[in-house]
């Protein structure tokens, strides 16, 4: 970082990052927007300068975060700053947007898992279990205030739901990371474009198509779950259930993408697309089947031939 221009721009980006971090931590409402814009200074810097210089700025951002925000600010700063550097490096390397999305999602997953493990080891706090316990206590407290006895079936259903959420914790972490990565890109890329930076462009959602191998993984997981039938609570049960849920979600995305493709072929308006999206939520099972058929039999190509 001997170049004065690099030093000046690095210092400017660090100042912007620190201000945004403090807004994200301590200012309600505005803080939410500030959090999703927080990676922008690191993205802008790392998309322009070398990876080594970006790491220096990353270390500087952590130092300033600790100085102004204390220990609480460090996990947030580390998660967002590392993601910002990864996104910026991918932009500089002209990586296509799907790989960029996967890289940023993976970075966020790793950060979330590290944060979760550290919160248990250092502070003896399990955020997921504590949240579920509070929800359960609130439910029983509400029934008590209403003067009602908890229904056995409802209690059993609640316990099963809590067990399922705990089992699906890895999938939950992946889901959170994917949504965050998507929001980071959707919010920050248009700003970068306005600043004259080149950013990769996603294909339209109707053109999204999963590799056919995903279908085989899905079928293999289904067969394994039926053959092995692992006991609840075992590692095999947890692993199979999480993989199955992730693959089912991917099939649902494939099915929804096909519906958008079909709407485009038919020339339907955006209003109908919004309606399709809303209706598909309670009908995810059917959308998933449609995704499987599209992936297995290439429905899009058949439709294009007919049209």
UniProtKB/TrEMBL annotation:
InterPro entries: DUF2232. Pfam families: DUF2232. Keywords: Membrane, Transmembrane, Transmembrane helix. This is DUF2232 domain-containing protein. Signal peptide: none annotated. The chain crosses the membrane at residues 12-43, 55-88, 100-123, 168-189, 210-228, 234-260, 272-293. It comes from the Bacteria.
């Amino acid at each position: 970082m001997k170049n004065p221009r690099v030093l000046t721009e690095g210092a400017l980006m660090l100042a912007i990052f620190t201000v945004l971090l403090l807004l994200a931590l301590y200012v309600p409402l505005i803080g939410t927007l500030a959090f999703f814009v927080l990676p922008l200074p690191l993205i802008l810097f790392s998309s322009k300068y070398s990876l080594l210089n970006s790491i220096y700025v990353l270390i500087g951002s952590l130092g300033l975060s600790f100085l102004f925000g204390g220990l609480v600010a460090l996990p947030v700063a580390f998660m967002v700053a590392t993601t910002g550097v990864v996104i910026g490096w991918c932009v500089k390397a002209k990586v296509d947007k799907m790989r960029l999305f996967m890289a940023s999602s993976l970075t966020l997953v790793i950060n979330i898992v590290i944060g979760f493990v550290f919160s248990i080891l250092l502070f003896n706090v399990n955020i997921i279990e504590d949240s579920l316990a509070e929800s359960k206590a609130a439910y029983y407290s509400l029934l008590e205030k209403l003067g009602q006895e908890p229904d056995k079936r409802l209690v059993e259903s609640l316990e099963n739901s809590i067990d399922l959420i705990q089992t699906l914790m890895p999938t939950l972490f992946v889901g959170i990371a994917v949504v965050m990565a998507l929001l980071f890109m959707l919010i920050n890329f248009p700003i970068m474009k306005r600043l004259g930076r080149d950013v990769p462009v996603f294909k339209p959602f109707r053109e999204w198509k999963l590799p056919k191998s995903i279908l085989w993984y899905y079928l293999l997981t289904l067969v394994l779950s039926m053959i092995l039938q692992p006991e609840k609570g075992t590692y095999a049960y947890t692993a199979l259930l999480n993989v199955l849920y992730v693959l089912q979600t991917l099939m649902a995305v494939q099915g929804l993408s096909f519906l958008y493709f079909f709407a485009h072929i038919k020339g339907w308006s955006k209003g109908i697309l919004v309606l399709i999206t809303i209706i598909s939520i309670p009908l995810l099972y059917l959308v998933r089947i449609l995704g499987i058929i599209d992936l297995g039999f290439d429905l899009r190509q058949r439709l294009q031939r007919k049209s």
